[in-house]
Amino acid sequence: MPSLKNTKVKMFALAMLAAVVISAPLRAQTGETTNSAWAQKENEAETKFVAGQFRDAETKWKEAIEIAQKDANKLNLAETLNQMTHLYLKQRRLDEARTSLQAALAIREKELGKNNPKTAETLGNLALVEHKSGHDADAERLYKEVIEIKRKDANSNSLAITLTNLANLYGEMRKIEEARKLYLEALELDKKTYGAEHKEVAQDLFNLGAVMYHHNYNKEAIEYLDQSLALYEKLNDTPGKIKSLHYLGLSHAEEKSHGKAIDAYRKALTLHSQLKGDRHPDTLVHQLNLARTLDSSGQEKEAEDLYKDAVGTATKYHTDSRVKLIECAIEYAHFLRRHGRKTEAENQLKEVLPVYESLSAHHRRELYELPRVYSDLLRELKKESEADALAKKHLDVFSPHHVSKVSPESKPSASKQDIPQRPKETKKSKAPSKK
Questions:
Q1: Using alpha carbons only, what angle is made at residue 292 by residues 358 and 435, rounded to the nearest 5 degrees?
Q2: Are the C-beta atoms of 77 and 62 separated by less than 8 Å?
Q3: pLDDT tens per residue, range 327-386
Q4: How far is CA 89 from CA 62, 64, 104, 220, in A?
Q5: Cα 208 from Cα 222, distance rounded (Å)
């Protein structure tokens, strides 16, 4: 509606003013209706997303976009474009996430300015997309821009989120001291915001422990993980206790403190079985870790029983989870090979090789350990021609860029839900947070 401050008062202008006064309520009502319809679609999309109904969530978000595009105020459009990032990241649709966020960022920079918290929110999500795309330099630059903006704002929790995301990136880049410094700053901010006995503080302590473990600072890892476990126990947070025990077991095993590792693994296995059931795929992660450490401490019989049970469970109860079957079979084959039972190990690998070959190229690369170990084992059994044929058939998974930094035989990998991670840059409390 045009401003009347400098309008000359003439007779026809009074008539025009009367017309404007009459029409203004109708325009306001239309705007309110549009905003209400958009908000309803946005909330429905969030609800569907949290419930795991991703197709329905996308439909609702697209309907929200269609409504928002008709509004002269484009901030609602920017909000939806920003929120759809959750769906795109979940489905690894990174190019679409980037395009959506760039559009949201352009709107927010124009309407709110570059230093507005909402602009920083979108910029932070864009940094996360570049991070997940493997564009480390771009992600680092964007995270730093967001941090610079947020340091001027009073929202310390929001700053802690971005500090943690950048720390995660530095951990992956093996910049351990930079990562530790940022995690510690996030820890102090969360203590200030929530108090010393809060879930966010426990998560910060866990993040520190996990990154220390992944870079072989096992004693420091144990110190932080003991603190996170104590706090999660005080908060009666079962998932938190499980992941802290999981990493404590890994760290103690690396330090050859097998008794402490076994104790941590047993507790993690018991809690996870109670939480998700003893046949859940993630429960098998704890079972395999326990079996490995029992074997290292000389308890071969119990270890083998656990390995056999894991393979049987993966075969019987997880017919669609072929990846889990391969992981269990590899671990059991390692056990058999360590104890000189090479023919049994060969039979184990031979049995699951067709399952491995039925996997996608992505999963075959992730589980390159199977053809590699199988080929090595065949050579040990003096079956050179078979070893050569197997290696040649799966040559692609032996190339250097596919090889893991740490062999599963020497250092067990953490399950995905235990990787330290902060929530995405968002104001929505309903959106998924840490894994």
A1: 65
A2: no
A3: 999 999 999 999 999 999 999 999 999 999 999 888 888 899 999 999 999 999 999 999
A4: 16, 19, 16, 32
A5: 10
Q: What is each CA distance from 83 to 5, 101, 112, 139, 419, in whole angstroms?
A: 39, 9, 18, 19, 23
Which tokens sit at 202? 């426990």
Q: Provide CATH 1.25.40.10 ranges for the chain.
A: 30-153
Max alpha carbon distance in the chain (Å)? 107
CATH number listed for the domain at residues 30-153: 1.25.40.10
C-alpha 323: how far from its chain's center? 19
For residues 249-282, b (16+ Cβ closer than 10 Å) or e, as one string?
A: bbbbbbeebbebbbbbbbbbbebbeeeeeeebbb
3-class DSSP state of 383: coil
Query: In whole angstroms, what is the distance from residue 50 CA to residue 70 CA?
Result: 27
Count other C-beta atoms under 10 Å from residue 101's C-beta. 26
| Token digits of residue 178 | 């930079």
Residues 6+ apart with CB under 8 A from 333: 345, 348, 349, 373, 377
Nearest-angstrom CA–CA distance, 312 and 59: 40
pLDDT recorded at residue 97: 96
pLDDT tens string 19-69: 333 233 333 344 566 788 999 999 999 999 999 999 999 999 999 999 999
Confidence of residue 316 (pLDDT cuts 50, 70, 90): confident
Specify whether the CB–CB gap between 396 and 51 falls below 8 A: no
Tens-digit pLDDT profile for residues 197-242: 999 999 999 999 999 999 999 999 999 999 999 999 999 999 999 9
Are the C-beta atoms of 142 and 122 separated by less than 8 Å?
Answer: no
* Nearest residue to 247 via CA among 232, 236, 234, 235: 232
